[in-house]
Amino acid sequence: MNSLVGNHIRNLRHKARFSLIKNSSDFFLDCSNPFDKDQVPIMCDFYQDHDFPSLEAYESGNRSIIFERGEGWFKAKGIGIPFGVSKPMYDNGKIYTHLLYDEPNMCHKSILWGFMQEDEYNCELYGAKKAEQLGQRIKILGSTCFNNTYYIRMRNRNELFEELHKTEREKLHQNFMEKGIKTKAYSIYTIVPSDIRVGELFYVLMFPRITELIDHSLIREYVEWLGSSCGRLLRTFHDSGSLHGTWVGDRATSLGLRDVHSNSYTGNYLVDDIGLTMCDFDLAKPVDKESEKPIEKWALVHIENPLYYAGSFIPKDSLTQGIAKKNLFREELAVLFKKAVDLGYDEQPGDLEKSLKRDMLGLLVRAKQIMWKLYNLPEDLVGNIYYIDYVVSNKSIEESEFKEAISNL
Q1: Residues 180 and 96 sit within 8 Å (Cβ to Cβ)
Q2: Are 168 and 225 contained in the same domain?
Q3: What does each C-alpha distance from 253 to 146, 158, 293, 348 come to in angstroms?
């Protein structure tokens, strides 16, 4: 186990409780199930009293957990929801959840809340196998299928939470029993080298005065390396005849362009002190048309990239002068990242000394902790570009606070 990465993940992630239930599972490698035979992890609201074992692991996204396992991290994806009113319900061997069919903020055209649908599972299996074949540091261990799953359709998350907040638990259970539509739900298990995301590190670079915490030249070098590494991995995926997963919707954006949905963004590239690994392949598929490749490369650079929301930081004092002061360093890094992705995709990747990869990873993780504390951001907030921009532009940090933060880095 890479103890350095382990320490960083422990500092960045929060723990959630999960339970082990009896359910048939398919593990592709001998002795790869970290639990007893046919025990599988799940995060649900148990309607009745139960004696299932309960354990803790780190959250990885909203429906997955990770914990240390051998030389990497065991990831269980699509096992439910860890907290809150939207946790799927489990009762006597049956799972009750919701299916969202018009959620614009998700990549999928429909979402089985907390779990994976069959087509999503097949894509994940296809993409993870492809990445492993290409030498990426991911290993598929196995999967499970929950045959007795029932859902009620909800349009989107707003409708889902509005309905759940006004519905008593007993009434919700009754609704599931009377109106639930039967389907199958899937979970998949892999070993990954890290759970630190490239996009997660880029959130740190949204904050003004970051160069007072980390030298600007080191940040540039690191962003260049991350960009070229992302571009190289995507190119190898495309050359193998596969897409990370991208499709173009029918809706027009505010710019009049059609909306692009993609797994190919910086949040789906894992980073440690060695290199990068792609993850989250629930849209992956073979390439149908050559025109899909440049769209996916565009998505890698532009979708959910905190660097590409440059210019939204407007200090309050600048408003009185009628001048919007931009975060110029952030804009510079956005351009730098795009150029680096292009170079990596054109098979001209750069590299860094391992010591610099290790040091920069540690500095950015620590800087994220400091910025989250300085700006009073929720500890479990992994990323929300618009919200963080709003907080940054509306909160003033005293010089004494900032100097104290620097001394603690």
Answers
A1: yes
A2: no
A3: 37, 20, 21, 33
